[in-house]
Design a protein that fits this description.
single chain; Immunoglobulin-like; 8 strands
Length: 110
């Protein structure tokens, strides 16, 4: 996936990883879409520490092509809508207090 031709082509090397991340997480200033374009071949996996717009960090885990857990944390207060398929919820993230959601976007009490 790396571009080997000289001189170094930054868009070739970083564009591939950016495109893969966008397949798994898409964000705007007020919405986070989870697994919008998950390939069938990636039926199980996880993504950790992805920074989304608005400044939060996201960890997701999926199994059998379905979300199993979503964790959001931030160093400052962040309010956003989280969308997964046809499901959607509002989340308020506070510094030092991660939010953990299940496959139905309900909060998991920790």
């Amino acid at each position: 996936m790396f571009d080997l031709c000289p001189p170094f082509q930054i868009e070739g090397n970083l564009g591939g990883s950016a495109a893969i991340t966008e397949m798994l997480v898409q964000s705007t200033c007020d919405e986070i879409r989870v697994l919008p374009a998950l390939p069938r071949q990636w039926s199980s996996g996880s993504l950790k520490g992805v920074r989304v717009r608005g400044g939060a960090k996201l960890d997701i885990t999926w199994n059998e092509s379905s979300l199993t857990e979503l964790r959001l944390h931030a160093g400052h207060s962040v309010k956003c809508r989280i969308t997964y398929g046809d499901l959607s919820t509002e989340a308020q993230i506070r510094p030092g207090k991660p939010i953990v959601l299940d496959d139905t976007l309900r909060k998991i009490v920790q």
